[in-house]
Amino acid sequence: MIGYAYRAFYRVAERRFPRKHVCARGAMLLSIAVISGAFSLILSDFRAVAKTTDDAAVFCRIRASETTAGLRIEALAKSRNPLSAGYTFSVVKNSAFGSSRNQQSGTFETDDANEKVLATVVLDRSAIDHYEARLSLKWNEERVSCSSP
Q1: Could you report the per-residue pLDDT of 62-99, keeping only the tens digit for each?
Q2: Cα dihedral sign, 27-66-61-134
Q3: What are the CA-CA distances from residue 22 to residues 17, 25, 33, 79 (Å)?
Q4: pLDDT digit string (tens) for 11-24?
Q5: What whole-number distance in Å separates Cα of residue 123 and Cα of residue 129?
């Protein structure tokens, strides 16, 4: 969808800024690319999965946010009732500046309805739009997972 929007804005930029105004066209396209990248990053923040067992709902979410240091990716879990569970969080980055793989796992407990940060990974800015993150929660032979983007 973002590729389609980029092409549509490119056609508008071509009409508004003829060939002699290449710098203005470039500035407009660059701002559109930055906005669409931020938009895709915001969209990845709202992906969540819930699984209900008995009367307890368990949620997982991956939150990605840009910082001055780069890209901050957090694994979050939430449960309506107290829960003791295990988690596995993996982040893979493949960009023109290199690749990295990070995997973390452990156990956690929830005691209220607030989200709990299970793990945090900070990557360089080249990771924006070039990463895959996956969080898996396991408790009482049940499992729920989520991914981003």
Answers
A1: 999 998 889 999 999 998 888 899 999 999 999 888 88
A2: positive
A3: 7, 5, 16, 53
A4: 555 565 555 555 45
A5: 12
Please count the residues of the chain. 149
Closest CA to 48 of 39, 40, 59, 64: 59
- Given a contact cutoff of 8 angstroms between Cβ atoms, the answer to whether 133 and 147 are in contact is yes
Q: In a 10 Å sphere around its CB, with 0-12 CB exposed, 13-18 middle and 19+ buried, how is residue 147 labelled?
A: middle
Q: Of 83, 132, 75, 85, nearest to 106 (Cα)?
A: 85
Beta pairing class for 116-123 and 131-139: unpaired
Task: For 111, list phi and psi in degrees, rounded to 5.
Answer: -130, 0
Q: Token pair 């980055």 is at which residue?
A: 93
pTM of the model: 0.63
